[in-house]
Amino acid sequence: MSPLLEVANVSRTFRSGGLLGRREVRAVDGVSFSLDAGRPEIFTIIGESGSGKTTLSRMILAMVRPTAGTIRFKGNDVARIARRRDRLAFMQSVQPIFQNPFEAFNPLKRLDRYLFVTAERFAGARDRTAAETQADRALHQVGLSLAEVRRRYPHELSGGQLQRVAIARALISSPMLIVADEPVSMVDASLRMSIVTLFRTLRDSLGVSIIYITHDLATAYTISDRIIIMRQGCVVEAGDARRVLNAPQHPYSIQLKSAILSPDAAGDPDRLRLRNP
Amino acid sequence: MSETAVLTVRDLRAHYVLSAFGINRSVSAVDGVSLRIGRNEIYGLAGESSSGKTTLIRTIAGAIRPPLRVLSGAIEFDFAGKRVAMQTATQSDLAAIRWRHLSYVMQGSMSVLNPVRRVRHSFVDFAYRHIGGDIREFLNAVRAHIGRVDLPPGVLDAYPHELSGGMRQRLAIALATICRPDFIIADEPTTALDVVVQKSVLGMIRSVQRELGSSMLFVTHDLAVHANLTDRLGIMYAGRLVEEAATAALFRQPLHPYTRHLVGSLPRIGATPPVTADLAGRPPSLADPPPGCRFHPRCPLAMPVCSEQAPDMRVVSDGHRVACFAVGVGA
Amino acid sequence: MGRTIWDLLRTNRAFAAGLVLLGLVMAVALLSFVSPYPPNDAYVVPPDVPPCWAYPLGTNSRGQDVFWQLSVAIRNTLAFGITVAAISRCLALTIGMVAGYAGGLIDRVLMSVNDTFIVIPLFPILVLFYFVMRDRMSWALLALVMACLGWAYDARLIRSVALSLRAREFTETAIFSGMSMRQVLLREHLPFVLPIVFSTTMNNINWSIGMEVTLSVLGFTDINTPTIGVMLYWANQHTAMVAGIWWWIAAPVALVVITFLGLFLLAVSMNEFIDPRSRLNRVRG
After folding, report:
1. Per the CB 3.0–4.6 Å rule, which of A221, A222, B264, C260 could disulfide with B276?
2. How far apart are CA C89 and CA C155, in angstroms?
3. Residue A95: its chain C contacts at CB < 8 A?
4. pLDDT tens digits, one per residue of B49-68
5. Hey, are the CB atoms on A216 and B196 less than 8 Å from each other?
6. C103 CB within 8 Å of a chain A CB
7. What pTM does this model have?
8. Set of chain C residues whose Cβ sits within 8 Å of the Cβ of A118
9. B98: which DSSP letter?
């Protein structure tokens, strides 16, 4: 089975400072994993701030170039995508979902426009009616409809709804891979689970692989197939999601798991004691 | 409650008046909230975006500036016999109680610590005038106090940007507790912190609070934090308090439909995902709230009376209050 | 659009005042099309007559009615100012937005060119231009040269806005929706950049009119076309101040000051309206 996405020993270093006193920050250090083409899955990257997960996601989306290693999508080196035609072909298959739903859309412009443009560009819609049909279908897949979104501005919808619109937009081009960077961290807690379970539905019914990046172990447990845990640019633990989260091996993973606050702890006087590795 | 409360809020109503280009809008951010916080307890306030909890703490803290206006209601503090009514307090009254009796821990610790001066200057700026005495003795006392939050005394000589987020937040806690205040307001103090750091900072908050015997109003949208820290918990929705109970009781048996939805939709590791459906709709615009109970458009238990009258907070069992017509019926 | 202007008129005094002043100036400029005397003709009326009923602003020493001269002059001056502003806005927008969006080498090259233009001393260049062109001097050419010299400051301003917009997530959403750079710049970024462009346009018009008046008063332009500055030039040539023909100087100066004021008030009040933040507040309400 040929790999859909192959991340091979990828590193990214950021240099700062002038001629005197240069400083190097290794944001991502030697990360490797791959996703298979024929088997859609939800691949979770867990990390705190500074772990390099956002930089890694940007490299996969071809927004940033790795300083070492290669990322191959369907066999093509992602960093070598230069021509507009190649870039469009890449974006047809790989789409992002960003953390802040309120920032993902231009606050001065209507939302439906993004859906129509995506449909025209990536889904072969020849005119407005065709674009609207595509947009409506994509919105239905996320539990919304075009009637609710038509002619609306971003501030008229809630964070959860906006994130669904963002997912719908990403689905219009029928991508093979969606890279979701902290998609629910800025959404109200009561809406998170429904969006997260939506990812699972997308994997099962549409065959889309999803790279789900988060710091929240609880939502990751619910939907992930495989998981890697990153710390300061390096992968500290990887494997099947349930196995890793039920019985973490690496000290950092154990620390992460013990730091989770469980809602069932209410009333337990010992609840805030950290189990040190 | 037999003993006097440290904070009593009675039927507080506050709104924002926004006016631009001839259009006047009144946003009713806090609409009839009443609560009491006793001594030596951590009271949690939970609510999602636009629930009014930020406005509520601003009003309680006395940080009332246009376009925020208090319409009616009373806020009273009782600091071991010294009573302060926030409505009638003058600037000098507020200055006298600030930090000495009432202090805050805010979300962005950088906004509390002066970024261009060493950390110890912030302590001097905030607390010295209350404690007085020789400055060197004061600084020694500060060093000892820093140890309480597990920070080395050398931290006082550093600049804020040289410290990590977790260290800065512990400093903010130390800063807020140096004068041993009776009441601490904490607004999302751990939201911006990493999960591991968050747990230790929360533990810090709890131990400091226990040691000083202060009362605390802890505001966050994160219910898991409330479950692990607070003694009592109040849930706010669209500017009103909809349920209030001891934390354990609230999680064990949430009564209000909104609380049940909130508690039910929390993810848990090692458990099958909850099957609660998404609540339809979204929190109402506070500029134009629905009549009657503000939750009724989204409520699965809505009855005709819910759209006509707003339910009052009724005591259902010991320490458990709910504002809902569908609860306590027949009880 | 009409409703926003009506809203502004109703609630914003500065806007209303600016509109009134500019309306006055525009009325005078438009009247030039019905002027009874051809603009360049001299000695068509008795010279040096002070303001009176027959000649509301008096006549000058060249035998021209000051009022009708003024109307042609302000029309030409305004046209000049607007042309320079239009051309230099286009330049500033294109260069600023492309530099901010593209980054890297393109940005560095464009900004080096930009900084070169900022450093060039304008006035000596314009005077030099006059001395080189002399008789072949024309207003169109002068407008073009001034436009080419007047875009640099604002291009940097626009570039900084473009840089910050590039980093925002909705730009990435637009890119992943398949929009080309041109589409992203025009449809996503331009609404944010427009307030700056608008206020710099007013400044630019004021600046170019001021330059024009300066150059013309000194005689460094085509003095046969009546503009505000050329009127003042001829007034100085005929030593109007000494001869007591004060209305010849007062009228053009007063009108150009009214123009400046009107433009300024308009810029200040419209800016508050177009600014995305206040727009968001209004839309949200």
Report:
1. B264
2. 9
3. 176
4. 778 888 898 888 888 887 88
5. no
6. no
7. 0.81
8. 176-178
9. B
Domain ranges for chain C: 65-284
State residue B1's pLDDT score: 43
The ipTM assigned to this model is 0.89
What is the nearest CA distance from C169 to chain A, expressed in angstroms?
A: 5
* Neighbour tally for A82: CB within 10 Å: 8
What CATH number does the domain located at B37-68+88-268+277-285 have?
A: 3.40.50.300
User: Residue C186's closest CA among C207, C201, C206, C171?
Assistant: C171
Whether A37 and A4 have beta carbons less than 8 Å apart is answered as: yes
Total count of residues recorded for chain B: 331
CB pairs under 8 A between A and B: 122
Residues 78-107 of B with CB under 8 A from A: none
Q: Tell me the C-alpha distance between A139 and A136, whole Å.
A: 5
What residues have CB less than 8 Å from B56, skipping those under 6 apart? B12, B14, B29, B30, B33, B45, B236
What residue in C sits closest to A93 (Cα-Cα)? C176
> Please, which residues have CB within 8 angstroms of residue A129's CB and are 6 or more apart in sequence?
none
The CATH fold assigned to A3-265 is: Rossmann fold (3.40.50)
For Cα atoms A3, A99, B222, give the angle at the middle one, nearest 5 degrees.
120
Domain ranges of chain B: 37-68+88-268+277-285
How many Å lie between the alpha carbon of A193 and the closest alpha carbon of chain C?
24
Three-state SS sequence of chain C? CHHHHHHHHHHCHHHHHHHHHHHHHHHHHHHHHHCCCCCCCCCCCCCCCCCCCCCCCCECCCCCEHHHHHHHHHHHHHHHHHHHHHHHHHHHHHHHHHHHHHCHHHHHHHHHHHHHHHHCCHHHHHHHHHHHHHHHCCHHHHHHHHHHHCCHHHHHHHHHHHHHHHCCHHHHHHHHCCCCHHHHHHHHHHHHHHHHHHHHHHHHHHHHHHHHHHHHHCCCCCCCCCCHHHHHHHHHHCCHHHHCCHHHHHHHHHHHHHHHHHHHHHHHHHHHHHCHHHHHHHHHC
C281–chain A Cβ distance below 8 A for any pair: no
Q: How confident is the model at residue B21 (pLDDT cuts 50, 70, 90)?
A: low
Is B227 close to A246, i.e. CB distance below 8 A? no
Which has the higher per-residue pLDDT, A201 or B284?
A: A201
Q: C8 to chain B nearest CA, in Å?
A: 7
Neighbors of chain C with 3 or more C-beta pairs under 8 Å? A, B
Q: How far is B312 from chain C (nearest CA, A)?
A: 29
Mean pLDDT of B90-117: 83
CB of C5 within 8 Å of a chain A CB? The answer is no
Q: How close does chain C come to B18, measured CA to CA in Å?
A: 8
Fold for the domain defined by C65-284: MetI-like fold (1.10.3720)
Cα(C92)–Cα(C207) distance, integer angstroms: 15
Closest-approach residue (CA) in chain A for B192: A49
Domain extents in chain A:
3-265
Question: Inter-chain contact A117–C177, Cβ cutoff 8 Å?
Answer: yes
